[in-house]
Write a structure and sequence with these properties.
This protein has helices spanning 13-23, 53-74, 125-138; strands spanning 2-3, 34-35, 39-46, 93-98, 111-118, 148-152, 162-164. It has 165 residues and is an alpha+beta fold. It has a single domain, classed as Multidrug-efflux Transporter 1 Regulator Bmrr, Chain A (Alpha-Beta Barrel). The longest helix is centred in the middle third of the chain and has 22 residues, at 53-74.
């Protein structure tokens, strides 16, 4: 079993890159179990299929806020919090879940999903709110209010839960 770097000990760009790399490793010939620490994410939840406007809007929301945070902090358009380091915006992740037992990504009656981007631990709610306001000023047609900052924890006992993007 491989353990990803403890999230709370991530204090540098390199350590954050290493964490993201460990969580999105390439396919291997032999399965490998990894321990995923609780992570802070920007997330959007929904229930429409991945081809829907709702899901496409969620992606726009996540990357609008995600890159707004990254670039706002880097170029000091947002106040840098204690512990700040420059970081890369990671890949979109999505947890897919069915309320019925069989996952059908085209059935909005039973489909539930949570799209997310992992952010460093120094990113807090007020900082996300500032980035959201800046993004909304540039693109008021995008539903940025649907995003939340939260901590996710992956459990091996979660039924019907799949990660993908």
């Amino acid at each position: 079993m491989t353990s990803a770097l403890p999230y709370t000990s991530v204090k540098t760009s390199k350590a954050f890159d290493d964490l993201l790399g460990a969580l999105s490793m390439k396919a291997k010939r032999n399965p490998e179990e990894i321990v995923v620490p609780a992570l802070q994410v920007i997330s959007v939840r929904g229930n429409q299929p991945p081809s829907s406007k709702e899901y496409q809007d969620a992606i726009a929301v996540l990357y609008g806020i995600g890159y707004g945070l990254k670039m706002g902090l880097k170029f000091e358009k947002l106040r840098r919090p204690k512990g700040y380091f420059d970081y890369r915006v990671g890949a979109l992740g999505t947890f897919w879940e069915s309320t019925s037992g069989t996952l059908n990504v085209n059935d909005s009656k039973t489909l539930r999903w949570q799209g997310y981007l992992i952010v460093p631990a120094f990113v807090a709610g007020p900082l996300v709110d500032e980035a959201r306001a800046q993004a909304k000023a540039k693109h008021p047609e995008i539903p940025y209010d649907k995003a939340a900052i939260e901590t996710i924890s992956v459990s091996r006992t979660s039924p019907g839960l799949m990660r993908g993007s």
